[in-house]
Records
---
Amino acid sequence: MINRRDFLKQMNTIGAVAILGSAPWVDAFGEMNNTQNEKLKVGIIGPGSRGRFLMSFLVKNPKVDIIAICDNYQPSIDEALKMVPDAKVYTDYRKLLENKDITSVVVATPLYSHCQIVLDAFDAGKNVYCEKTIGFTPDECLLMYDKYKSSNKIFFTGQQRLFDPRYLKTMEMVHQGMFGEIAAVHTFWNRNGDWRRAVPSPDLERKINWRLYKEYSKGLMTELGCHQIQIGTWAMKSIPEKIMGHGAITFWKDGREVYDNVNVIYVLEDGRKITFGSVISNKFYGLEEQILGNKGTVEPEKGKYYFENPTPDPAFLRMINKIERDVFDAVPFAGTSWAPETGSQNKGEYILGETPQTDGTCENLAAFVEASITNKQPEKIAEEGYYASVLALLGHEAIEQEQIISFPEHLKLDYLNHKRTIFPGENNNDFYSRGTLSGID
């Protein structure tokens, strides 16, 4: 089980204050020692592959008791019961929410079903951890955020990089100005696979492979891009004003409807840019976020940073000086004013002294547990999750519309004084006609 001191030590930081400046949500661990005898009763809504991955951390947390699971796909229930054999089983999430013993729920159902479940969970007085992307549309995300703000309950999203030691240390260095002014954040997530799951019978195709169909999924933007776009706004401390992009099915022409090749550009008010690209027919470059400053570059996934002008080894420097004197002293002209810009051979430095044995998921869930027990919502974590979701969805809209779109004013939050209410004539139920829990995550 993680404790706050070891967590901060793992990040190789000089102290908690520096990290909290860039990631105030880490303070959820602040009262960990005071909650040793507490027990959080949790319900899992959607124990599919992702849900069971989250459960694998929760069952190891001595402060958690998973007392209920809910799904309408029996194989998922059967697998989940191997982890929590005494849990009560539901096939209707609304019945689970009626269980007064449950104080917190984890929602890991397919994307299109998140919103109604989360709204109902807040109405039932539950704390909520919802996998990303939180909503199926930007307006759904806003409804969910509004409901959270009026509920006085805890709201976490599945943006695990917010607790990844590499990223926390990266943002500390970036925000302290170590790499100068950040001009751009280039991100990509490439794979080589069809993204399909085996289907036991044809009638289950859309239930099991919901990610491939537009009725249920927004494809690569929400499944992958949501993580990386958040890194861009975290580094820039700003949200984009304009979004443009393109998507296509260029390789996996197998009846899917979502794109297998996307690129999106997010433009900030001052012209700086965040980009996201994904191709799932080539995995050579894998995934990375490249944070580009005038003094240096950070690649947090790789766990390294590179200064633009690294100090060379003295022996190497002497050798270069000798070569320059021998070769160029006899040259009678100044030489070309242009040379091709090839990639740097700088090997860089490691962000942390050792590679963390975590991607932040365990810590994200542990922080949710602590916040739920203490009933203290960590600062800005809900907002980070909200904007990551909205920007991923706006990127998808820009692709679908094939035009530049602006960030809608009504979707911008005021962290300190959020007063938005449902507009006159606006009905929460207008957004939901797709049913619930009809897919496998």
---
Amino acid sequence: MEYITVALAKGRLAEMTTDLLEKAGLDVHELREKSRKLVFTDEKNKFKFILVKASDVPTYVEYGAADIGVVGKDTLLEAGKDLYEMINLGFGTCRMAVAGPKELEGKLDSIHNMRVATKYTEIAKNYYHLVKKQSVEIIKLHGSVELAPIVGLSEVIVDIVESGKTLKENGLVVLEEVCDLSARFVVNRVSMKMESKRILALVAKIKELLAKE
């Protein structure tokens, strides 16, 4: 029997997924051990787990280096990979939003040549070009995007909002909601054909567990 490989996003998401996989009957004791290892196995059920950076999960799954991946919807939208999104796991919930100074509330549509700072350029492009049908300049940042409107680099930002505390501390507010985000269970398209029985059995078990919560 071949191993089914599951790519997990390092950090809190991997920990929450590990709990779920354990409830679904997989042996995850290796994953719980504090080590620098990146590959773990469940010999009994023939599953392999790999820990990768969140932004790399869709790539591992698309290219078949992993059959299954668990990653945030924001990462999936940004990566734009061709995967089967099987389950909304419902944890790691937050939202993608447009934020800026409070005085811009209700005025966004009247700003010409608006500049939008973000780490999530694909999500921002899709939102403004496809949803809002608005022409904007998108500025890619890697660090604290909240700084951009404060120093005049941009009028607004597109970023993940959990509690809104960081925005508040920097004098910004949510101006528009872009989309809700949470962890998703995704599957490689070829793996779905080759290992459909085992993958669908795991999907069914996880759905059953989530329904009880």
---
Amino acid sequence: MATNITPQHIAIIMDGNGRWAAEKGKPRSYGHQAGVETVRRITSECTRLGVKWLTLYTFSTENWNRPADEVAALMGLVLSSLEDEIFMKNNVRFQVIGDIKRLPEAVQEKLQQTIDHTAGNTAMTMVVALSYSSRWEITEAARRIAQQVKDGQLNPADITEQTLTDNMTTSAMPDPDLLIRTGGELRISNYLLWQIAYSELYFCDTYWPDFSEADLQRAIDSYQQRQRRFGKTGQQVEDDGQKPSL
């Protein structure tokens, strides 16, 4: 049952920068730099289409295990890519999720400056997952909940799914409607595991530096061809004539 509904929250695993560069005989950092240009283009296109949330998997907690020179290059790229133009031109608010305290101090300061400067923008919110993994996030939520129980603020019998959600770093965000992974891999890679329980998944072979506005539209077209049932039958959804609740 096709619709013309634009997903309000798109999450993307931006994969393939290194392989794209290697096929061109270039260092991996060259691919990451090209990937930043794709971020700019896709951000502009998402705002044009009316997407309200765009969450980008930029650097995972596991990525700290990569060669030191690549990590350093990625941190430098984060600093140089946080330009006001991409946010102010498109009226985009900037947010970040992840274990930020592990980042270099200069990166932390730049992130906060960008968050503060874009706080009044209203067209779309771009969330960068930086030094992030879903298992880290869930572990941190469990620690916060355990502390609340220890402090007598929470009865264990009262812990619900919403309790977990409220203690996630993503608590202020809606769950993704559509998760896109570029680069041909067919896995989630420890990304938003709690939040994508009912997200639609879309995988494509295109490396992130080559991911175009047309590729984004193909992902959205695929999303619009699907019926989101949230545990109900297809007939129930059709009878309701509206998005079912969880």
---
Amino acid sequence: MKQRIRNGLFVLAAVLLCAGLAACGTKAVPDVNLIQNDTESKRYVNLFGPTEKSDPDADNIARKAHEKTVLMAEEKLGITVEYRTYTAEDYQDKTYDEVTLDRARNNMDDLYLLNPDVIQVLGTEGKLADLSGLTVAKNLREVVKTANTIDGKLVAIPQEVVAYGLFVNKELFDKYKLSLPNTPEEFLNCCKVFQENGIDTPVGANRWWLETFVFAQAYAELYNEEDTDARIRELNSGEAKYSDYMRESFEFLKVLIEEGYIDAEKAYVSEALEGERDDFLTEKCPIVMAYWGAANADTAYGNPGFDMQVIGFPSSLGQMPVFTITGYGISSDAKHMEEAMAVLDEILSEEALSAYAETNQVISPSEHVEVECIDALKPLNKRINEGIYVLASNANMKMEQWGNVCLAVRELLNGASVDDCMAELDRLQKEAIK
């Protein structure tokens, strides 16, 4: 089961690299050979990630925004970026995260694209360099610094910030005279009304993203009041329990399951978008959960035949966006440290981040880079711009969040009691502290 969670996190990392696949209308990228050996290139950087350089003859629609920024860095610095790529075939049963941990611990590469749990592990082990000296560090959104700072060191920086929200069919809400929900109670009432009017399963779900409800409800006050750091210290010391924060949200999910507002059996086995996308697009269910980029992608929810809006998850403080932060990290013992820092500084420059964000229509890690979002995303974006959010990944928390909570939610889907899930979270917290 742990392996499946890591695969799910690898999907998230792949999203960051591949979100630009739907971009079009750009000029062809020059054919630059990114694979050279030591004797052919005096200055180079080894990059390990889930995606290799695309075929130079590929259609422009498949040109990744990430790759454009790498080419910009190469041309400006005269440094070659050599792609070292994860493929499931090469590594068989090993997940991307497992392979990344092994490579980073053995100093096999300079630059890595990292998932949240790996950032936490490698940062805690001292295997990642401090990036606070990079130019972009001065302009980072607070959410990025909060998520990826360990022991005072900024150990990873993403090219985009991934925000999760509720995707809702506004026309169905209007049809039954329902306001978009702000609190858990309002959300449950909406589900009840939909079910009473013949919509048997109001919420489409998969096995990965139901934990977004948990984070929104559990951490609304923790991240939006002034004592955030003190509360995290209490959790890290064991003075406070994660289970105390999360019990009510698990009880909320239990109601969703018991009332049939979600199909627990289907969600338990469904991959992201696989189990709920068709029902949402055909208006059989009015609510799903997904990440920001899904609203722009034709392969997800980019072209619904109705008025779609993306809002935050219900919480005590209203509609709450949920962030999870991946990022680029540099090995603390990188062979080509100077070159790696220079490349990353260029990939994360204002110019490169603007190109990336505009191509993919995503949230930039820089406060200075803004991209006009589509109308559907404006409700979620409004809350983000107000500085209202919670984190589903935080390297400062000793217990890894995203994967562990997802596992607990899956057990709930599979019939476990709330008490069982809380006991497991308590066990994981004790392990993490020890």
